[in-house]
Amino acid sequence: MTKLLLDTNIVIDLLEKREPYCYDAMRLFTMAYNKKVDLFVSPMTFATASFLLHRNGADGVHKLLSYLRMLTHVSPADEHTVDNALASQFVDFEDAMQYYSAMQANVEAIITRNGKDFANSKLPVFTASEFLANFTN
Fold first, then answer.
1. Residue 40: phi, psi to the nearest 5?
2. Domain count, the chain
3. Helix, strand, or coil (residue 102)
């Protein structure tokens, strides 16, 4: 089964129903529900999503995050993740943390709306629509 790390922006697209991006995010989560892909998110994504959803006045944030957790695996983030992120050439520290967390989870690709943020990635990086257009299973 294809293992994918979702960047935080993909998760927020879904949870905040950001159009038009939420539709591709919904398709990815439907694929996970139907056991076509394994979705991973970093622990930082849960924290960032919680902050953004609370800030934007979303109701039932805990419930939304619980549903997110039911459809995803949490990629590891430990001292090695932090050390690698600190030593990396990534411009954005959060992106570096997600990348090295993805590497530890042995995912096959990263799904994001900001591919340039992962310019240093050794993993394939796709937008949700690019991945969905090319996925065969």
1. -120, 145
2. 1
3. helix
